[in-house]
Amino acid sequence: MLDHGASFPSGHTFCTALLVFTLWTLCLPHIQDQETQLITVLIGIGWIAMVAISRVYLRDHYLSDVLASVCLASGWWLLVTPAEAFIQAKMRQFLPEGMLKSWPHQN
After folding, report:
1. What pLDDT was estimated at residue 105?
2. 18 vs 74: CA distance, rounded Å
3. Listed residue (43, 18, 19) closest to 31, CA to CA
4. R_g (Cα) of the chain, nearest Å
5. What predicted TM-score, i.e. pTM, was given to this entire model?
6. Residue 81 and residue 71: Cα distance in Å, rounded?
């Protein structure tokens, strides 16, 4: 049975890409071995690709829909990532010091 909702862009692919980007941001700085980092990145790319391919295979989306979703998620992430330092500074104003020690990129 086909879905009859909006087709462009693929929400499944968009959300999966954002989830993978978030996991990379949280996990990669803590992985010391470059080979393990590469494997982690390849698994994330594979995950995004599997979701995108499944959306096309199930005829819920066209290839252009899923490619646009990955591009939109990448663009969004590139816009939001530079704001990380600002967000951390604001969080330090409201959260106790002990809560931020586990924040990524903190040494």
Report:
1. 52
2. 8
3. 43
4. 17
5. 0.69
6. 15
Is the per-residue pLDDT at 97 higher than 80? Answer: no
User: What would the two tokens of residue 5 be?
Assistant: 């909702």
Residue with tokens 């096309």: 56
Longest dimension (CA), the chain: 52
pLDDT, one tens digit per residue, over 2-55 is: 555 557 787 788 889 989 988 888 888 888 889 999 999 999 999 999 998 888
Q: Which DSSP category does 28 fall into?
A: G
Token couple for 31: 């992985």
CB distance 66 to 8 below 8 Å:
no
Tokens, residue 44:
């994330």
Tokens 């980092």: give the residue: 37
